[in-house]
Amino acid sequence: MPETSYSVLGIFETPDALMKAIPKARAAKLGEVEAYTPYPIHGIDDALGHRKSPLGGMVLVMGILGAITAFGFQYWISAIDYPIITGGKAANSWEAFIPIMFEVTVLFATFTAGLGMLFLLNKLPFFGHPVLSSKSITGITRDRYALAIEAEDESFDSAAAAQTLKDAGAIEVEILPAPDRSPFLTSNFILRALGGIFTACVVAGLAMFFLTKWFPLLAPMKYMQDQPRLNAQKASTFFKDGHGMQQPVAGTVARGFLPTATGTQEEAASLVNPLPRTKEVFAEGRKVYVNRCEVCHGSLGNGVGSLTAAYGGKPANLQSQMFREYPDGKIYWAIVNGKNAMPSHAPYLSENERWAVVHYVRALQRAQNAKDEDLKVVAP
Amino acid sequence: MKLDAATSAGDIPEGLLEPALTVGRVTPGSLDDQVLAFPETKPPKQWYFALAITLTAALIGVISIGYTFITGIGAWGNSSPVFWAFDIINFVFWVGIGHAGTLISAILFLFRKRWRNAIARFAEAMTIFAVICAVIFPLIHVGRPWLAYWLFPYPNQRALWTNFRSPLLWDVFAVNTYFSVSLMFWYLGLIPDIASMRDRTTSKLRKVIYTILAVGWRGAATHWQHYEKAYLLLAGLATGLVLSVHSVVSFDFATSVVPGWHMTIFPPYFVAGAIFAGFAMVVMVLVVVRETMELKNLITMRHLDVMNKVILSMSCIMGYSYMMEGFTAWYSMNEFLHHGFMNIVTGTYGWAGWVTISCNILIPQILWFKKARASYFWMILVAVGVTIGMWFERFVIIVISLHQDFLPSAWRIYKPTMVDFGVLLGTFGIFFTLVLLFARVLPVIATTEVKAILPDAQPSHHGDEHHA
């Protein structure tokens, strides 16, 4: 059946016999000549008239692409999208990107070399080739050297091809049918593959959704949430009283909060403001006053704050004659201990903040009752 | 460019001619019958016995790792200031073991060392298994390995990116690349061999498996042409890679300021150490393979002799590196470096320093003698010694440097726990289990590559016309 046959295989016992037969088979011009060998034979590419493998160029291009990709990716992340300074280096210091550039270059190049060779150049995997199902294949992958004359068109004459190979010294000749073209990489195949990938994505997405919903966190994955630690304001079995938070030992004093002005207001009158009158101190005092005093005493200190009548008490008018003549120590005492409807501010204000606000109250008083000399101080 | 460098005997002086690569008469057919037969025969009792031992060890490792997951990293001895201990020691140790495989398969290929063909397959397989063992450690060291994918820079809802200035991230890339490239290299080499197995097996199941794995390889000359080109390119790429991987691993240490780590000699020193340890492991395994699998005619005493020579030369490089470390410490005039170095020889862990020096530098010197290189006793002694020594070298570098650094108030003695040892034993179990399985299911010798270098394998008249 010469018209359906696709190729004719001639088997040789030694590489020498194979090499000698190649020119003869090519000279017959019956079809394309291809050799099948158990291992690469030196010089066979030239004998068969193969062109050089383009793999080197492909690998070079992809390697360079890998380097550029890695550099661009790292640069964009480290210098543009997420610029975090580490080790005191500038965000765009590229020297640190080199190791990963190298790795990615090698990765791109290797995959191009390996997969490019298999898929693109050798068109593998392909399981339908007639040589694979021939009788001769057991010899070809073992210790026999085969030369094939393969059909280029309909007019292939397998009998003549078989005769040529026999004349060239083949010890055995086998006629093979046309290849069984497997459906790999046809448009139909690609469409179905895409459909398969899409379905797989949907299934995986739904699976993830329900898995995380039904099994939110399994031990030990939830250990970060369930740490054996005490939370503030929570009960605990660790202490006898069942409280998570414990009172400090009786008599504990926080840093900067040593009790002061413990006597009467009159006794405190002799205290001297230890802070100098500097810009910083006034700024600090102003901050404390605005945050802590203004609601009641008003921004001018005249006792008219934003507090409504519902408060009940009447905040003192600090601009009154009496308070302008008050010694610093008595104001200080009032801040620390509170007075009648005014609460103690000792828990919120440190020693320095208390004295700073005293300075500020003095400044307010002076500002509202300025004398002519004060103007001179301001004017240069 | 060919799988092996064809050297026309006429140009080379007699003394430089390579001796025969095989013993006795080996033909392509007999080679297949000898090597590809293993997967089809029933394994001997000893194999099952060995597998039982390695599986037990692996099981201990799995239990230890499971225990670590349930209790947390506190199950290990790691504690301030020694936050890196067994986990990182073992990681560096195993990555290093892998390097011999890549060296043999890639660098010796580029150097046209044809003897490599017989041992390349096994060494490459060991590379892959060693990297698998190595990767376990950083994974379990992150504490919550199910989140280890955070190490990769991918767009995420936390709007965070990885820090590309960190050597630890470089490591992620280096080790992953190394693993993928090694796997690719190994698999490409296997394809023609699997095709041979496909065409000789009589079992239906094996036929299906081998058919798929061999991707329809049919030995066409056009295919071989691209294949050889790909192999050459991969060898070139892997050569760069093998030098880079352990350099990057050494950056984990060298780019920090810890005394004893911050040294420029680290990258070459680590690479040499890795090749050293890897060769020792390969020698150990090959001796066993050669004896138990009847491969004496293919893995010859000459192979072992050459590998022992490599071990010896690496040992000398290690000796130089150790001296350089001492010199750097002394020349730096830095008291922290002085202290760190003195710790290696006299400190609490001084014994570990001496184990390192004697196993890595002193014992291998026996290999200067040809008799020792030809004696199983000495080469196994050296190989086991080097394996122990190289493990302790990493212990010395990591634990000794960390346990006493700049802040004396933070100094502490590190003690590993049983779990630490369990995980270490486990990785040995996993490694040797994989080696045993590999020896039974895949061709342990790259038959295709060996066929190509047998006498009469290449056409006799082929001259220089195609060798540009």
Would you write up a description of this structure?
Chain A has 380 residues and is an alpha+beta fold. Chain A folds into 2 domains: 1-186, no CATH class; 265-378, Cytochrome Bc1 Complex, Chain D, domain 2 (Orthogonal Bundle), CATH 1.10.760. Chain A has helices spanning 15-27, 44-48, 55-81, 98-121, 137-140, 158-167, 187-214, 265-268, 279-297, 321-324, 328-337, 351-368, 372-378; strands spanning 5-12, 32-36, 145-150, 172-177. The longest helix of chain A has 28 residues, at 187-214. The termini of chain A are far apart. The relative contact order of chain B is 0.17. Chain B has 15 helices and no strands. Chain B starts with 27 loop residues before the first helix and ends in a 17-residue tail after the last helix. Chain B is mainly alpha-helical. Chain B has one domain (26-151, 165-454): Up-down Bundle (Formate dehydrogenase/DMSO reductase fold). The interface between A and B is large, with 73 and 77 residues.
CATH class of chain B: Mainly Alpha
Structural class by SSE content of chain B: mainly alpha
What is the straight-line distance between the termini of chain B? 9 Å
Please identify, by name, the CATH architecture of chain B: Up-down Bundle
How far from one another are the termini of chain A?
A: 119 Å
Summed over residues and divided by their number, the pLDDT of chain A gives a mean of 87
Helix share, percent of chain A: 40-55%
The SS-based structural class of chain A is alpha+beta
Tell how many strands the DSSP assignment of chain B holds: 0
The figure for the number of domains of chain B is 1
Quick take:
The complex is a heterodimer of chains A (380) and B (468). Chain A has 380 residues and is an alpha+beta fold.
Topology record:
The complex is a heterodimer of chains A (380) and B (468).
Chain A: E1 5-12, H1 15-27, E2 32-36, H2 44-48, H3 55-81, H4 98-121, H5 137-140, E3 145-150, H6 158-167, E4 172-177, H7 187-214, H8 265-268, H9 279-297, H10 321-324, H11 328-337, H12 351-368, H13 372-378
Antiparallel strand pairs in A: 1-3, 1-4, 2-3
Helix pairs in contact in A: 3-4, 9-12, 11-12
Chain B: H1 28-35, H2 45-71, H3 86-110, H4 116-141, H5 167-200, H6 204-213, H7 221-254, H8 266-292, H9 301-331, H10 335-346, H11 350-362, H12 370-373, H13 376-403, H14 418-441, H15 447-451
